[in-house]
Amino acid sequence: MSTVTSKDGTTIAFDTYGEGRTLIMIDGATGYPAINPLNAETGKLLADGFRTVTYDRRGRGNSTDTAPYAIEREIEDLAALVDATGGGPAVLFGWSSGGVLALDAAASGLVPVSHVAAFEPPFVVDDVRPPLPSDYVERLDAANAAGRPGDAVELFMTAAAGMPPEAVEGMRHSDFWPVMLGIAPTIAYDGRIMGTTMSGNPLPADRWTSVDVPVLVMHGIDTWPALIPGPRAVAELLPTATLQPVPGENHATTPEVLAPALRAFVEGA
Fold it and tell me: Ranges for the AB hydrolase-1 domain (predicted)?
């Protein structure tokens, strides 16, 4: 594992796989390499043509954190990673809300980007599922500030991920629960990244207008039906975007599916 110092002094921990053009894998809410091996496995499959970077987003795993949080700080983290791993332009891939961060980074102009790929950005643009509560981020912040990280995790699992409360109660007694408690403060980060895009309304027309690189938006063929309208909406919104259903379900796919899809996207675009 290597580290790089972001602009605000935060230490970002990362690993690399292979050699070639830089591909940065961005986890969504709660994810990081120690609990999500898909990124490393995908990097190994792409090792003959890409330098794949997997990293702990700030506040998770072996990365540190610096208050106050702002989306711009995470974009600066990506810029530091690109600079540390060979410069750009880089390919950005993001799972779930990590795909939204990838789009924001490309729109910012602060990160040299050649391609953006996103898997099931969790936009809520219709009434297929309930929208996030309007005070979602404030409730997350309040729970963490009061020393109740479990309440923050439960709010994310029920309101954002759509799990029934009884399933979350079962999780409280699992070995995975302490891991979730450790990263609970970062859940609000992804809430800020999502902003109003889970409100049940159309996506903002002006948020990514400066994105002029090829964009690939994927969703699993057998994923939860509520997760399909969001990818379709952003693919329709961005003139450089392509929508690609791939084998996958339950908000994920496999490295054996993802790696060739990314390779074809980058090498064919």
Answer: 38-259
For residue 1, the Cα-to-chain-centroid distance in whole angstroms is: 21
| Alpha carbon distance 70, 66 (integer Å) | 10
* Residues of the domain holding 188: 136-194
CATH number at residue 72: 3.40.50.1820
Please say whether the beta carbons of 163 and 130 come within 8 A.
Answer: no
- Strand 2-5 versus strand 11-17 pairing type: antiparallel
Between the CA of residue 109 and those of 5, 33, 77, 165, what are the distances in Å?
20, 26, 14, 41
In the chain, how many domains are there? 2
pLDDT digits (tens, 9 = 90+) for 232-255: 999 999 999 999 999 999 999 999
Q: What is the pTM of this model?
A: 0.96
Strand pairing partners for 95? 119
Supply 174's token pair.
């699992």
Is the peptide bond prior to 89 cis by the omega test (within 30 degrees of 0)?
yes
Provide the CA 231 distance to its chain's centre, in angstroms: 13
DSSP state of 112: -
